[in-house]
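Repro:
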Amino acid sequence: MIHSFPARQIASTLRGNLRHPPSRFASSNSVRIVDVGPRDGLQNEPRPIAPSIKAELINRLARAGLRDIEAGSFVSPKWVPQMAGTAEVLSLIEPVPNTNYSVLVPTQKYLDDVLALLSGSSPPPITEVAVFTSATDAFAKANTNVTIAESLARLAPVVRSALGAGLKVRGYVSVIITCPYSGRVDPRRVRDVSRELLQMGCYEVSLGDTTGAGTPASVRAVLEEVAKDIDVSLLAGHFHDTNGTALANIQTALDFGLRTFDASVGGLGGCPYSPGATGNVATEDVVYGLMGESLYGEVGEPYSDTPVVNGPIWDLGPVSLPLLAEIGAWISGILGRETTSRAGKAYLARKERERKLAEKAQAKL
């Protein structure tokens, strides 16, 4: 059974807030992208990346217009060696105004490390921490060596301490569709765990299709169940692209009312505790999927007054697809491979073609 907090703690006003919270978005077409590449993207790499490179990745993402970046995690280097040196990474960040930098913390011990850094003479620009649990006991045990109930009991004081220190807290729920150890996941379990995290004090819960097995139908089934207790404006989507359905799942979630999505530049990522799972959906692909038609230019030959593109025009803020494509190629090159972003590859190929055409034209002069 999932851990339950004392009944007095779950006041009727809180239950009401889970169903009807104040809007966090200026308009219904505003979409927030959280780039998790520096943490979730790099944590599954076969070899650690130097802190200076991680910091450069974070700085480039902020300069590309992303306003929510997960900068790293405070975890045991024995279990996740790729996240060693996060404190040094944070010291090298060049803060960009109006940008939210967050870190993952699994226990009170690691939150204390974050708070110690924030109390220093040159504190890093961290305004948020993230905590995580799972929708199955099997995955929770593989990931953190505890059950869901034990995980939630351990996270409660972490959330209280973080909130008491003035930090925002975001929650993650892993394996919302299938678990690599126990199979298909009951959507009711996703609902119950998400509700527990929100009742602790998380301002948002990111629902993770960790294995990337989700389809629009299965994602909708989960959201329909979770929405019975929780307003969708408190939910985010975290879709891995193992089977190539991440963008379709994001569109389903958008139609359902979600407006926050996690993504990873270059499609970096995976999960060390989910065998076979490939990277997160690429940030470039999400940006193109929501805004790509703005890159087409004007219609060359007028035909009628009918709009060329029907449907919502999504507002992603100041994000730059060209810069993201270049960042994805840069970090992928450092990792010894090509970017997995289709939109990134397409943009870079067009730029290369334009460069060659310009050289050819110059040679004719």
